[in-house]
């Protein structure tokens, strides 16, 4: 029997809040570092040695996770419970990984949803192979070389971050050919202008992505690129023949027989959780090949399975989520920095920022009642070592403590490297990562010159793996998706709707309709020259 | 006579902390919006109507600014005072704009520094014109088409953000030809690998940027691209003939007669303040032409002049800075979101993140004494409308308030736009911006369904201008540089050093030397496979 209660009504909340943080500054040691390591999917592991939790706090986190029935709720979600209470919907993104956990069947809308998603997956395989082999060509007979996704929010950030992340993979990863992937998201016409400028439209395929088929930005950008194609003067260029759509089967985009193909998602896949659905699948399969996308799905699925473990000491995602609760609700930290030591992951923090802040930036519980505690933190980040020469100054010596989540790999993704001063670039990258964790945790006192003094006690965790290959990328993605889900369960909120985006949409329409007498809108519209 | 005192020792600190915030939710109106607008350089203005300050609070902010002698300190900095106390250095980035304020002369190291910077500027003009005209060619006789900056931190973020920001300018902006600009920053070998892959090395020019000439990442990347050039097998390709350096005249990079050219900066230009020095000037002049860079300098200079005004109601930068103090030290907000409604500014938040967090993320005052109040906040941001479909959920409905700084333009930068549903994309962009400001400030109650309720009272400001041209870009850059400087004066900290980056560097060297018996480093190095 599953119970839903607010965090402040649990037995363990007050217990947790009273726990004094473990002193990482003086008590971090090699034994702790080696022992505080949890294996996850593939070669991935989560290390929490530099987090301010001791065995006693971990016991309380386990008790709280049990009391809030995190694993039971995860299983309920997997089996088709309507976990998206605000919109009264199922939550099925884990079912888009190409296989169901434990072969679970989920019926909805008169179909088995696993079968439904797998059918779309097969459509993606067939279509992407035809485009990549040159069987499907542009309307003037040219092979497709560039794929442009037009979408915003979840239809952009996740797919884009994953596409960029695999930039340097090669035959060892099942990728023997690459098409160029680009993205148009912003309603700002300068976005589309920059992306299509100098482009060979005849060898370009556009992917329109909008679940509802009504997203203002996406439709405006579709019309804008159609106009560019029509104005190009190229004989025989038919815009519709350069377009596929990813949408729900009830959307206006679903019914255009003129376009090349339509791939379906549904209301049970939130935008920010849709990277493993056709929203990410079409562009990833076109760009790198279907096998690469399949490997991402395999990694995500393997990680979903790891997340079923109820022992917090054997479940890295659960540990990560629960430590986050301790940091947020007991220690009061309002933010977390996500710091990948991999240039290929340079847009992953932006995706995790959406994933986390849009899911858990909520002030009401899953029943719509205002909660009495803090929920999701602000998420930000940039790749290391870049950040070390930028905002790390504040992380080391600022007046506030910012918890950090490091991500690192033992090997580079590409094949280029070089020795310089006795070490390779990849080794330097890793040495910096290791150095930062210890510097943040242990600090260094300098009584003579406080300006050179590092207080330490800056908590961080480390998610690491052998190499950023497609499987590992999928596992990292699922780790963060499931972390956010677990934290939502602890806070008793609905991590799957986003009512907070609505008011802005309503008011923007009002401005476009002449402000309808709203004097504030009028005054700002005047300033902006509308 | 200038006095330096900690914020908590000022008369106005307690006064300010006691002030009840102005209620923007119920008191925002058209009159306030029109009146709370301060003209800055060119067409730019700063609007603070949706900030929780009334005339009484502004009076206190003025009194505090006067008490902390912000304008006097700015003038002292301009006239060569050693404001970088930690490193005992002058702070002269405003002098790199191509002209001195009020013709001020600053002597240091036996030269007049304005003349020194202007000489380098003239060198940039001559060199960039020769490269762009084809007079200077690559070592195999090909014209230079691609320029790659190798630098990290301040040698990367600012120049990169500015380069990207001007992507769509054209002849109306004095730009008749564009070279392609790219950037290598991260020591991760995958960064260089991705940038140089598929590149025509014969028509590429590299700019090495490191003030000290010893930056680990930059030297590793230099060697890495040299190796690629040597391994390319191209007859007659001489790597050194494809390289210029930007460095100080005492650095190891300054003394290589084999390379094409060297441009000098000095110790009085902090990395994060160096975008208008040769650090940004060489790549911007090569990419867009010297006249474009000169227009950026003109905009920055005009804004520097605006910032001299002592009346807070006539000085947008001062108002912005002081409202930030109220938000941080009276209301306790630990972060600020920077939200440009312009896709071309997509990397500007990353630059401002460094600028602000590295400058003011300090725990000691300018004399090295620990301070008793909060200093610089966490800065993050992404372009709108993208963010609206991402993290804005938390900004609207999260449990914490995040102050916001909007940036917008009346006209698009590029020439592409389209009508869709009765409005252009640019108008939609602006309508969204206007809508968000009002939605955040005023909210919307929904007693029946708190999940659809927006609490409002989310403060924001708006920096806006006619169009993102080079002059305006320079003005925006200087606005934020000067804002950070003013806030540093209020907090009595040194915004111009960065001791917080040192410990990580020391420990990274230790790891590369085998950890020297540090068991924590050893254990993490083991996990990372070092």
Give a brief rundown of this model.
The structure is a homodimer of 530-residue chains. Chain A is α/β, with parallel strands linked by helices and 530 residues long.
List the helices and strands and how they pair.
The structure is a homodimer of 530-residue chains.
Chain A: H1 11-17, H2 24-27, H3 30-35, E1 37-39, E2 45-47, H4 55-67, H5 70-78, E3 107-108, E4 111-112, H6 113-133, E5 146-150, H7 157-165, E6 180-184, H8 189-196, E7 204-209, H9 216-231, E8 243-248, E9 261-265, H10 278-288, H11 290-306, H12 316-330, E10 335-340, H13 348-360, E11 378-380, H14 392-397, E12 404-409, E13 419-420, E14 423-424, H15 425-442, E15 460-465, H16 470-491, H17 502-512, H18 519-527
Parallel strand pairs in A: 5-6, 5-7, 7-8, 8-9, 10-11, 10-12, 12-15
Antiparallel strand pairs in A: 1-2, 2-15, 3-4, 13-14
Helix pairs in contact in A: 1-4, 4-12, 5-16, 6-10, 7-10, 7-13, 10-11, 11-16, 12-16, 13-16
């Amino acid at each position: 029997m599953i119970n839903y209660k607010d965090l402040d009504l649990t037995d363990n909340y007050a217990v947790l809040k009273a726990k004094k943080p473990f002193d990482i500054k003086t008590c971090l040691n090699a034994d702790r570092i080696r022992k505080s390591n949890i294996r996850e999917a593939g070669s991935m592991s989560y290390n929490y040695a530099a987090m301010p939790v001791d065995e006693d706090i971990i016991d309380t986190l386990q008790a709280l996770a049990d009391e809030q029935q995190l694993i039971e709720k995860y299983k309920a979600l997997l089996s088709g419970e309507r976990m998206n209470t605000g919109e009264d919907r199922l939550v099925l993104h884990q079912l888009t990984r190409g296989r169901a956990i434990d072969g679970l069947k989920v019926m909805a809308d008169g179909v088995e949803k696993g079968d439904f998603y797998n059918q779309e997956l097969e459509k993606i395989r067939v279509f992407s192979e035809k485009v990549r082999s040159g069987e499907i060509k542009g309307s003037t007979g040219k092979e497709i070389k560039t794929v442009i996704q037009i979408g915003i929010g979840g239809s952009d950030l996740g797919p884009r971050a994953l596409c960029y992340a695999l930039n340097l993979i090669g035959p060892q990863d099942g990728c023997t050919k690459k098409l160029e992937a680009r993205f148009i998201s912003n309603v700002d016409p300068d976005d589309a202008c920059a992306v299509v400028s100098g482009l060979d439209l005849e060898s370009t395929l556009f992917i329109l992505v909008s679940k509802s088929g009504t997203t203002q930005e996406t439709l405006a950008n579709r019309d804008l690129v159609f106009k560019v194609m029509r104005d190009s003067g190229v004989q025989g260029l038919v815009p519709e023949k350069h377009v596929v759509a990813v949408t729900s089967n009830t959307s206006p985009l679903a019914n255009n027989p003129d376009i090349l193909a339509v791939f379906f998602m549904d209301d049970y896949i939130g935008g920010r959780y849709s990277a493993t659905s056709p929203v990410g699948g079409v562009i990833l399969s076109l760009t790198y090949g279907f096998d690469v996308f399949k490997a991402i799905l395999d990694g995500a699925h393997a990680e979903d399975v790891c997340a079923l473990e109820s022992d917090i000491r054997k479940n890295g995602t659960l540990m990560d989520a629960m430590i986050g609760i301790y940091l947020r609700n007991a220690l009061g930290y309002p933010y977390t920095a996500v710091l990948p030591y991999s240039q290929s992951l340079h847009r992953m923090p932006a995706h995790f920022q959406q994933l986390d802040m849009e899911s858990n930036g909520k002030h009401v519980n899953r029943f719509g009642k205002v909660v009495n505690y803090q929920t999701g933190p602000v998420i930000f980040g940039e790749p290391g070592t870049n950040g070390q020469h930028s905002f790390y100054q504040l992380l080391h010596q600022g007046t506030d403590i910012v918890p950090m989540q490091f991500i690192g790999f033992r090997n580079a993704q590409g094949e280029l490297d070089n020795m310089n001063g006795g070490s390779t670039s990849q080794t330097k990258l890793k040495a910096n990562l290791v150095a930062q964790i210890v510097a943040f945790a242990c600090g260094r006192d300098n009584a003579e010159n406080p300006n050179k003094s590092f207080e330490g006690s800056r908590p961080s965790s480390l998610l690491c793996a052998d190499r950023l290959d497609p499987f590992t990328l999928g596992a990292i993605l699922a780790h963060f998706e499931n972390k956010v889900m677990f934290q939502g369960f602890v806070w008793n909120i609905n991590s799957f709707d986003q009512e907070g985006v609505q008011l802005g949409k309503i008011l923007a329409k009002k401005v476009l309709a002449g402000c309808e007498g709203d004097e504030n809108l009028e005054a700002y519209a005047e300033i902006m020259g509308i």
